[in-house]
Amino acid sequence: MFYLLVFVITVFGILYYYFTRTFNYWKKRGIVGPKPLPFYGNLKETVLRREPIAMTMKKIYDTFSNEKVVGIFRLTTPCLLLRDTNLIKHVMIKDFDLFDDRGIQFSDTGLGVNLFHADGDRWRILRNKFTPLFTSGKLKNMLYLIIQRGDQFIQYVESLCEKQTEQPIHILLQKYTMSTIAACAFGVDLDDQTIERLNEMDKLMFTLNYSGELDMMYPGILKKLNISLFPTSVKTFFDNLVKTVIKQRGGVPTDRKDFMDLILELRQKKEVTGGKRQGGDEEKTIELTESVIAAQAFVFYAAGYETSASTMTYLLYELAKNPKVQNKLIAQIDEVLQRHRGEITYETLKEISYSDRIFDETLRKYAIADPLVRKARCDYTFPDTDITVKKGQTVVVSVWGLHRDPKYYPDPDKFDPERFSPENENNRDLCAYLPFGTGPRNCIGMRFAKLESKVAIVKLLSKFRVESSKNTPVNITFDPMRVVVFPEGGIYLKFIRRGS
Q1: In which band, very low, low, confident or very high, does the pLDDT at 36 lie, cut at 50, 70 and 90?
Q2: Less Cβ around it within 10 Å: N or C end of the chain?
Q3: Between 290-321 and 259-267, two packed helices, what is the crossing angle to 10 degrees?
């Protein structure tokens, strides 16, 4: 019994040492931060799935309000939380070449070569080749597809509201964004069976597992062990989707000029090259294997539908809570559409400028993708400071912290679209508003997301008002199991036909 007790105490002591061995790292360097807990570091509530990581980071951001940087531990791994917008600007923009990785890599064959997660060199090539898909000209060419799906969405809402005015709006908006991205990216229409399959994919793609925590504990281990963040069934689905579309088009580009056409154009070259890194002496190439193509299809779909559906959900929720804002938007929609005889064009949508302010304020108050993470390529000392991050360490930006900081946004819990009037935008620090990131590695699909959202909102509010129902939450709690920041249990609103 004595030896057993000694053994247990020894094992406990070894484990305790192992899971706390790094916890003096920032203290030795004179950088303050919250006290870490054994194993969990500063992420206990996140690891136990009690709150999203965005909320955990915001609490740390708020606690250390007088600091430029905060030393934190993602489990046992030291990293820096940046609070100072000038330091954020150096990482995201000025010294971007030294921080061009997002900090997590995983199996290339498990969708790891997608544009979002790709390492800096491969990202440069992919970004360079896919940027033309999101020019104004390309978006104008896709607009008719978005409008068609918008019309189908309104017809669907009308049919539902004949029976029940109260609806779970996120589920409705997911159907719209699913069909829109399917049409614009892959040139396919969704049937009930495909929608059901995509809903299954949603659970697999956007429900957290513990692979992220594994990589925090042992940075780079997913890549070394060839582990993916996503189940094999997700890869298989997008492999099959790409093969089906390529077969339908005979393996050559069509006149649709959508995502798959661009893929087919690139596929004919077999490999693609990108620009050189600043100071670099060689141009990198990527072989366009089926795995690489499937990875891009995956990230375009995932980013194109869920983030927009969630953003519009929050937007309509705020319009229901703020009827004066909703009235002002409806008045502008009516005026512009009447002047253009009800026709929606790219130029017409630009005239409905108040919707842009509402969209931006929604993402100010409800940042969907948070936190932002970057990995240092080399030892880096921030200008005019003695603060250094080592090669391979990560820096983190709390978007929720910045967006709810009264220094940048007085009365931050208030929904106020006038924060994004031209004069107010001009007076705000560039790095105090980061819903799509900033700098070279910002969200490539930002303009597409705004366009598909604007079409849906304009069409919806031209026929309906949204109001709170008895099931509409007064105070939102956020789902700790979702990858993106989303209300637990969803949001219910009433759709009231205008004029009724």
Answers
A1: very high
A2: N
A3: 160
Residues 158, 309 contacting (CB under 8 angstroms)? no
Cis peptide before 371 (omega within 30 of 0): yes
The alpha carbon dihedral of 230, 220, 289, 186 has a sign of positive
Q: Residue ranges of the alpha helices (H) in 377-469?
A: 399-403, 422-426, 446-461
320: nearest Cα among 495, 73, 78, 69: 495
Residues in the chain: 500
Strand-pairing partners, residue 397, are: 82, 372
* Residues pairing with 381 in the sheet: 388
Q: Using CB atoms within 10 Å of the CB of residue 377, give its burial: 0 to 12 exposed, 13 to 18 middle, 19+ buried.
A: middle
**79 beta partners:** 72, 394
Report angle CA 325, 328, 331 to the nearest 5 degrees: 150
Kindly report the average pLDDT of the chain as a whole number: 92
**Tokens read off for 453:** 């959202």
More confident position, 187 or 229: 229
Dihedral class, residue 69 (left if φ above 0, else alpha if ψ from -120 to 50, else beta): beta
Which pair of tokens denotes residue 466? 């949204």
Mean pLDDT is lowest, of 185-194, 308-317, 342-351, 377-386, for 185-194
Cβ contacts of 7-11, under 8 Å, gap ≥ 24? none
Residue with tokens 């990560």: 394
| Neighbour tally for 39: CB within 10 Å | 16
Maximal CA-CA distance, the chain: 89
| Separation between Cα atoms, residue 171 and residue 141, nearest integer Å | 27
Tens digit of each residue's pLDDT (9 = 90 or more) over 232-278:
999 999 999 888 888 889 888 888 778 888 888 888 887 778 766 66
pLDDT at 275: 62
What the block records as the tokens of 104 is: 């997590």
Residue 466's identity, in one-letter code, is V
Helix axes 290-321, 354-365, angle to 10 degrees: 100
> For residue 471, how many other CB atoms are within 10 A of its CB?
13
| Amino acid, res. 380 | Y
Is pTM beyond 0.85? Reply is: yes
Parallel, antiparallel or unpaired: strands 394-397 and 77-82 = parallel
Give residue-wise pLDDT tens across range 130-179.
888 888 988 998 899 999 999 999 999 999 999 999 999 999 999 999 99
